[in-house]
Amino acid sequence: SRALGHFVRAFELLRNDVQALRQENQKLHEVGGELQEAYVAVLEEVRQTAGDAAYWRELASAKEERAAGPVAPAAQGAESRTPRASRTTPCSPSAAEPSPRLLVEGAPATPSAKSPRARNRAEWRPQEREALHATISSLRQ
To answer: Where does the record place Low complexity bias (predicted)?
Structure first.
């Protein structure tokens, strides 16, 4: 009977330890899931930032090219004398009304104004991918 009492107490201790370990395991799984969600959110933010940087870089280089381009001489016709704001490209019927900046400079006011497809191309160019990998590797250290 004494031996049985020792076994019962030992069993209760083991059962309590197993329950505590299972609870700890469950908490670790939950925290791991939250950590993974946070990592995915940070990775998406890095991708979005890389896309924004690529977009604005392209926009700046296009503006520089436009500014450095040759000025049309007045002898080329009446179109060269037409104010730039009146020579806008027509928008598709489904597109929203363009901003005044778009009409004047030919550039969207925000990165979201550019088509998602073109933005994705700019986002994943090889040099942008390399910069993204470098950023991620520096964050891992």
So the answer is: 68-78
* CB proximity list for 74: less than 8 A, separation 6 or greater: 80, 81
Sign of the C-alpha dihedral computed for residues 83, 84, 87 and 90 taken in this order: negative
Give the pair of three-digit tokens for residue 57: 């870089």
Residues whose CB is less than 8 angstroms from the CB of residue 80 and which lie 6 or more positions away in sequence, other chains included: 72, 73, 74
pTM for the complete prediction?
0.38
User: Which amino acid, 23?
Assistant: Q
Question: CA 100 → CA 59, 60, 81, 107, distances in Å?
Answer: 17, 18, 21, 10
Amino acid at position 39, single letter: Y
Cβ-based neighbours of 136, under 8 Å, separated by 6 or more:
43, 46
Backbone angles phi, psi at 77, to 5 degrees: 130, -175
pLDDT by residue (tens digit) across 73-101? Answer: 544 454 444 444 444 444 444 444 444 44
Query: 106 — alpha (psi -120 to 50), left (phi > 0) or beta?
Result: left
